[in-house]
Amino acid sequence: MSSSTIKRELNAYLPLLSTKQQELLLEMVKNILQVEPIEKRISVKQYNEELAASIKQAKEGKTVSHAQLLKEMKKW
């Protein structure tokens, strides 16, 4: 398949995708090209702090069950 044919087909399909699908496709392309995302990685200190906060929330019972999450996702 020629380069121009590929570009033409991509241009034809792109508008048919939802915004979310377009975002996912863009991320896949960036991943294939190994393009660094704009966001920077967090530090080990920040990671550990977030992990500790999450563990604390779980111990306090501030969790969401799988069933509750599925119900919430249906609203999206």
Compile the SSE list and pairings.
Elements: H1 3-13, H2 19-33, H3 44-59, H4 66-74
Brief write-up:
The protein is mostly helical.
Structural notes for this entry:
The chain is mainly alpha-helical. It has one domain (3-74). It has four helices and no strands. It is elongated, with a radius of gyration of 20 Å. The model has no long low-confidence stretch (mean pLDDT 89).
User: Kindly, what is the distance between the CA atoms of the first and last residues, rounded to a whole number of angstroms?
Assistant: 39 Å
Query: Helical proportion?
Result: 55-70%
Unreliable sequence segments: none
Mean pLDDT: 89
Report the strand count. 0
Largest sheet: none
Q: Helical element count?
A: 4
Structural class: mainly alpha
How would you describe the shape?
elongated
Radius of gyration: 20 Å
N-to-C SSE string, H for helix and E for strand: HHHH
Strand content: under 5%
> Domains counted in the coordinates: how many?
1
